[in-house]
Amino acid sequence: MNESPDAHGHDDDDLRTMQIVFAALMGLLVLTVAVAYVDFGVFTLPVAMGIAVVKALMIMVYFMHLSHESMLVRIFAVSGFVSLGCLFAITFADYIARYPAS
User: Considering its fold, how many domains does the chain have in total?
Assistant: First the structure.
């Protein structure tokens, strides 16, 4: 194979990595659909959210190239994830406070 980067600065290893990540994302998509048809009781939502977080992290690290960015860009990306987690926590806490389990 050609060892030199192409016109966009990508080499063959990057293409192979992207193909592996794409295949993993497709596998996680199939897993997400399978989880939707299986009843895990109270763990259905955490399992689905866990799969979604793994997919989001894979997209951020590989397709958005965060692994090659500066520490400042990584900090801002993580802070966005933390902010989203806080919003989910506040929303779920409000929901539980309004509709307590009986």
Answer: 1
